[in-house]
Amino acid sequence: MGTYVLKTMAAQVDRATLPWDLLLFAVFSASQAALFFLFVYLLYRLCIVPAASALHGRLTSGVLLRDLSFFQATPPGRILNLFTNDVARVDGSLNGSIASLAGQFVNLALSCGVLVAAMPASVLFVAPLLAACYALQQTYLVKLRELRHLDAESRAPLLDHLQEAERGRVLFSAHGVLEARAAAFGDLVARNVRALWPLSCIDLWLGVRLEVLSVVLQVAALGLLLAGSAEPGVLGFVMTYVFQVTGTLSNIAKISAQFEADAVSVARIAEYSSAVDGEEDGFPAGRDGSTPYSDSDPAPAWPQFGRVEFQGVSARYRPGLPDSLQSVSFNVNPGEKVAVVGRTGAGKSSTVMCLLRLMHQTAGKILIDGVDIADVTKVRLRRSLALMPQTQIVFSGSIRQNLDPLGLHHDEEIRNALGVCGGPAIIDKLLGIKDSAETSLLDTIVGPK
């Protein structure tokens, strides 16, 4: 509307209304800016941020609820790439592409409507421009998808190598293989760069062709206007929107191509966020594909006594492998201490993993206080059991966050638990910190160990 006001002002002979026309132009321009700001704000507030948060939450749940076989078969670099590169694309460039693409389509529709209303003959160059931009975009997308896939495939081994270097740096130094490791890392970096370089080149390829196409069509539109002896006001008005339409089409082609490329990250996130190993919402589909299961968790106080029963349990690490446990049956009464003894591979760790449903159970039942753990969601089951690994791990954060990471208990309950195991005395001896009114022991920050 602001441009239309300027066109009207240029066609007027009487300048008496010029101040009012300028005021009207300023009002329309300010209104356009305010509406655009409101549009972007609502888009982010109501659509983009909730969608990104939901995708990240589903991805986290989908990965954490997987069986142990998933982590054994999936390279750590691939999982790390999901939570770094793919999530960054969803939270960053994809969100920006959605907002920009929506704004550009609205701008294109309004600009084309005004342009066709002012000069119906503009359809002669707008239609070919749309077809040419679409053809360029499709050619660009075919190669872009392949290059994005190569980039993702070459990035995962690089992250794996970095993790191995961090974990085995002492061992590599002791055996004198640092130079070989550095050379291997250089080869992985070079492989990733070979995948990234064509990505930059193909963006330039699309940009150059879109700019050339825009210039050719702008010259054609100008020739059409001059041949028709258009008035100066109409000439300026139409050419302004011709430049705007060509620029908008160029932006749409680039942004939509980037949008579809970033959508590959959404597809990967959705793949790992989908139903886990045939389960829906953490419930198994049945050992034989037909066994029904309850859809309700046990009482909030479960497990109250700690009676464990294995009834003919067979389990394997993943489908296709032989059973690691075969028809195991035993009972552990509340308060009993039981030691499982056996050679390597006898099934000691597998027995514990079955309690947390980290393995594929093929037969039998595991009861805790009379409740079949197959009827309990993985989230509730793992929240209700505690596993003490052979290697103790302390995470970065406060003592409260380490003891109660989900924030389900009051400070007094955490203090009582610390007191039962002699925690305050040990912390006082190691860190010299005592629990008092001035200094809360639970807020003491500890590092990863």
TrEMBL record:
Q: Which SUPFAM superfamilies match?
A: ABC transporter transmembrane region, P-loop containing nucleoside triphosphate hydrolases
Domain spans labelled ABC transmembrane type-1: 1-261
Instruction: Kindly indicate whether the keyword Transmembrane belongs to this entry.
Output: yes
Q: Which UniProt keywords apply?
A: ATP-binding, Cell membrane, Membrane, Nucleotide-binding, Transmembrane, Transmembrane helix, Transport
Bilayer topology reads: Multi-pass membrane protein
The segment annotated Disordered runs over 278-297
Q: Does the keyword Cytoplasm apply?
A: no
- GO CC annotations? plasma membrane
What family does the Swiss-Prot or TrEMBL record give for this protein? Belongs to the ABC transporter superfamily. ABCC family. Conjugate transporter (TC 3.A.1.208) subfamily.
Protein name as annotated:
Canalicular multispecific organic anion transporter 2
